[in-house]
């Protein structure tokens, strides 16, 4: 039976989403094409009808995973709420559906430019989402300060999550990384909030 164009696109999207989850769980080298296609419900032979190479799929899956992070924690979310959600035990334990940057950032550094470019583009999108649309005044001092604050927060949050996941699941240190870093970042954010002028 012939597959329609719409069905082929849906199949491809399903493979990308499946790959995004499996790569976050096992790393790029921990998932072979045959295992990936089987998990998506397709045959190994169908892979090269959809993708030029595993690297192409890695780049697409990175973009997909970062877009999911933005949808869950970025778009319209205040920085403090982003920090609370990101540095939670629930997020820490949800490796397959959690942040692609924390799960695969180290792996991505050893990948071709196409994969690193997908990460850079995704990170820029997250920065824009967390900057609350300050792009209209991108050259202003306030916008540059907001961007610097967001970059600092993302870097600290990703690092804390990576360190927490590096510890055994039942290790007190795993929770301590999340708690200490979350409290420190929330304290910094609270200290930099500009109080609103009193109404007259």
UniProtKB/TrEMBL annotation:
**Residue span, HTH tetR-type domain:** 9-69
Task: Name one matching Pfam family.
Answer: TetR_N
Top-level division of the source organism's lineage: Bacteria
Q: Keywords for this entry?
A: DNA-binding, Transcription, Transcription regulation
* Signal sequence interval, chain numbering: none
Enumerate the GO terms in the molecular function aspect: DNA binding
Q: Which Gene3D superfamilies match?
A: Homeodomain-like (1.10.10.60), Tetracycline Repressor, domain 2 (1.10.357.10)
DNA-binding region boundaries = 32-51
Determine if Disulfide bond is one of this entry's keywords. Answer: no
Spell out the protein name for this chain. TetR family transcriptional regulator
């Amino acid at each position: 039976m012939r597959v329609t164009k719409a069905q082929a696109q849906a199949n491809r999207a399903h493979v990308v989403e499946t790959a995004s989850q499996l790569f976050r769980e096992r790393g790029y080298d921990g998932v072979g094409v045959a295992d990936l296609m089987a998990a998506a419900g397709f045959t190994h032979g169908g892979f090269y009808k959809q993708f030029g190479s595993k690297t192409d799929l890695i780049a697409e899956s990175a973009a997909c995973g970062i877009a999911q992070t933005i949808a869950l924690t970025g778009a319209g979310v205040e920085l403090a709420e982003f920090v609370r959600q990101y540095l939670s035990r629930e997020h820490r334990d949800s490796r397959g559906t959690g942040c692609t940057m924390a799960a695969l950032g180290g792996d991505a550094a050893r990948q071709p430019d196409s994969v690193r470019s997908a990460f850079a583009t995704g990170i820029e999108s997250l920065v824009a989402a967390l900057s609350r649309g300050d792009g209209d005044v991108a050259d202003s001092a306030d916008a540059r300060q907001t961007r610097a604050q967001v970059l600092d927060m993302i870097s600290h949050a990703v690092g804390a999550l990576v360190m927490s996941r590096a510890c055994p699941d039942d290790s007190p240190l795993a929770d301590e990384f999340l708690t200490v870093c979350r409290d420190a970042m929330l304290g910094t954010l609270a200290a930099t909030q500009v109080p609103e002028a009193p109404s007259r």
